[in-house]
Amino acid sequence: MTPAELSSTVLHAVRRAVDAGELDVTVPARAVVAPPGPGGCGDYATNIALQLARPAGQPPYRVAEVLRPYLVGIDGVADVVLTGPGFLNISLGGAAPAALVEEILSAGTRYGCADASDASDASDASDASDAPDGSVVRLHCPHDLRAVVVADAVARVLRCQGALVRVTAEGFDREWTAALGVRVDGVGPAPLSLPVPVRPVPAPADPLPLGRDAARWALLHPAAHDRPRIGDEHLAQREGNPLFRVRYAHARSRALTRNAADLGFAAEPGPVPDAPQDLLAALGDHPRVLAAAAAHRAPDRIARHLVAVADAALPFLPTVLPRGGEKPSAAHRARLALAEAAGTVLAGGLTLLGIDAPDHL
């Protein structure tokens, strides 16, 4: 069961409880499904009971108690545990990783984008796509390199969520396009159509000497209200550099595919008994992160999410291939598929940030 399917399952449980007369509420349009927070457990958690408590006229925990039986019996749901004021913590059955991996590999680097799947139904942002009706989202930034880079990344993310975007700036240097791959649709004062201002804290130094990839990462990884660090640490080929870890994890996943081909087998989604739950949760959370990044104009959320995916994937990757005289098995093919899914998510996220994802590093 994918995060999008689980979100629909939660809504179906609410609908069944309403039909049975146990809840008197209007079934919402969407249910937020995300990895459990502090104190949570299982694979995913939803706050639907807290959302429905007031209209139901009942405490959140009681609403959660009503909904739990309608979720426990669903195929693919192994258990549901109530925590906190009324969070439903959902553990999925063994087939869940296979379904998630299959969804990612089918969508490719467009996984999480509006035209790739319905996964955005599981997002926490009601305005994630911003302009599904064809209206234009207008971003406007000052004559500042970081502002232009952030606006460029925001535009990429909004477009991946189905929005039409126009970026304007009060000033623009042509070398920025050649050096960092940014572009704007117009230069001059803010248009009269109430544009969305993009004004992050400016960089303290010129990032162009870092090169396109490291410079964009340096400007996009910090939140807009944080001052970015511009230094050679972004070029370091070591684990202390988050950009290196993200790109290295991607390159390692691609190397595993090549090595597996040399051994005569390929990826095939299937059960992975020893699959790291933090990796599965991070991969399943990718559509929600993209939707939230679009809604909040915050590409830094994607950058930090990619670091989380890489940090969860790196300890797993050495376990993928057969060891010694071991012959490739279904378990190896399933592990390889999971590794390829992680690499796919990393490549897709880096692309949205305008950063290259090399197969060799």
Properties at a glance:
4-stranded antiparallel beta sheet; 361 residues; flat; single chain; alpha/beta; 12 helices
Write a structural description.
The model is unreliable at about 115-135 (pLDDT under 50). The longest helix has 23 residues, at about 330-350. The protein is about 45% helix and about 10% strand. By secondary structure, it is an alpha/beta fold. α1 (about 5-20) packs across α3 (about 60-70), α8 (about 240-260) packs across α11 (about 300-315) and α11 runs antiparallel to α12.
* Helical proportion, percent range: 40-55%
* Number of continuous helical runs: 12
What amount of the residues lies in strands? 5-15%
Mean pLDDT: 89
Structural class: alpha/beta
- Which regions have little confidence, pLDDT < 50, spanning 5+ residues? 117-133
Number of strands: 8
The succession of helices and strands, N to C, reads HEEHHEEHEHEHEEHHHHHH
Q: What oligomeric state do these chains adopt?
A: single chain
Rounded to the nearest angstrom, the radius of gyration is: 22 Å
Largest sheet: 4 strands, antiparallel
Task: Describe the strand arrangement of the main beta sheet, using strand numbers.
Answer: 1-2-4-3
Distance between the termini: 34 Å
> Which descriptor suits the 3D outline?
flat
